Amino acid sequence: MNWSLDKKRPICPQICEKLCVLIASGEISAGDRLMSVRDVALNAGVTPNTVQKSFEQLEQQGVIYSKRGSGWYVSDNVAIAKETLDRLIHTKTVNYLNDMQSLGLDKKEIISIIKELRYE
Amino acid sequence: MSEILRCEFLTKQFGAIKALDNLSLSIQSGKIIGLLGPNGSGKTTLIKIINGLLQPTSGAVYIEGDTPGIITKPKVSYLPDVNYLNNWMTVEQIVDMFSDFYIDFRKELAFEMISRLGIDRKQKLKTLSKGNKEKVCLILVMSRNAKLYLLDEPIAGVDPATRDYIISTIINNYNPEASVLISTHLISDIESVLDEVIFIKNGSIVMHDTVDNIREQHNMSVDELFREVFKW
Asked: Are residues A39 and A92 in the same domain?
């Protein structure tokens, strides 16, 4: 898992997004146990308080739930995580289109560039 | 969460120079806090006063309600900005000395961290490089099970990879009952690991907020904000 975080944005929502992506992409499935707060903190290089806060926010949204003394688990309702993923895809695409537009390309040209390129 | 440190109207005067100017501050337990400010802004003076090495000209410090002294010594683990250990001692001897000195010292943890960083415990301190000496000092300080860790410039002399290790050491030793106050200039290296930051300028606090609040309000990293606030 690559935790590279954007230094300009608050950390907490970024952790939430990353976990939602993991869940929505099926890397962690419904009912699976999440990594511990400490593990996420160590891997992402952030304070455990921030991770705890992110987990609590995801719990409120119904993406994960906690079992006392046993940790955090992915809830059955994966759709909520998918929504976050869709939102991310949308903003990233809009950002890309805006960037290309500022370089003087119109939609048609952008599409033809994308078609020419293959996944690397 | 409880208040672990409170500073009330601290002023410290060195002759004509005001190192701290009516500074007040409250720190809760379970936080990792960055004390950030340009050279000569009073960071080290503040840390020394909290630690009881300096007496304030006026104002007061309370660590869990007690003023710095014998009662607070077991609660505070302090990393000075200068090396204070005996150069002729080996790493092992120093660990033993700390273990004798502090009831809360976790010797196994210290040796484990030392060997993970590839430092030979039989080596004399004077044969260690500057960076390795700093690592040993930090390991000694973090191996105590204290309530308040005061780290004065803990990562200045070490390479970026070791910085990451040191940061993970701080996270790994994280304890919801304890707080860590880190003074540093290397903000971008550590800002993601901080819960709160304190900006200090000319002995006064100009900002005390959480990292996420700062990023949200200013749309920039703490490092960028620091450069903006303290621009010449």
From this structure: no
